[in-house]
Amino acid sequence: LASWSATPHAWSVWTFFAQLCGYVALSTVLEYVFFYRRWTERRNWRIQPSNETRSCHASTNTGGYDWGLPVRDLWSVTPRRGRHRLHSTYATVNLLVSALFAGATCEAYIRGLTNLSQGGIFLETGFGLAKLIAVQSVLEYYWHRVMHVPAVYKQLHKLHHHYNSPVVWDDLFIHPCEAFGYYVILYGTGVFVSATTISFLAYMALMGTCGVLDHCGILLTLKVPFSGGKSRSASHLYATNFHDAHHAKFNVNYAFPFPAMDVAHGTYFEETNKRGGKN
Fold first, then answer.
1. What's the pLDDT at 272?
2. pTM for this predicted structure
3. Among 21, 38, 208, 279, which one is least packed by beta carbons within 10 Å?
């Protein structure tokens, strides 16, 4: 029998840092472009422009850029921008755990412990991606509904709803136990679902990006070509105000990242934008 080593492969270590740095890079770009450079124009891009219950301006007292990375507040007596006192701790822990899950999934693949395979034609890769998204969407929806059971909500999920108008860096403010459970769903698909490695990489890039965008507070949409003036559900492939409405309304739009499960269960809410039209 071949000896088993506890030492991770270089690719697994690289994956850990790629996950961590990718999250920080995307969040930083969104914060810098919108919450610093375009702050005075926020009524043009904020999903909830009238919700100013806390300061979200990424600017120092001298007018410079104030990087909002939560780890910077770990040793601060008073959290910046009206953040919850546990925000920096939980967000930092969850980011590290997420990166560890990414590295562990890569290690499991290298050791032949997953259902992921190399290669595959275009159709096989697309079908694999669809399967991964579908499995995650179903499991995430029911997991999220469980988080709203009163006893569970009080102990865990209530923290994530501390912000009813989330902005950049708020997505990882989740109780670590809840975050761990979701990471099992998110990364577990790579272990149990049969797909190509390209399918899984595309899936993780999509989920990671949408996770950040869903809580960024910036109105961003991806429209279906030639959809004309149809409703949001018919004309948009993705819109950030879909999940933002969950934080504002509480008991709607549980799905991630697409609304299919909400539509199927009657919990879909079609938000209207600040100009009075449907998004």
1. 56
2. 0.90
3. 21
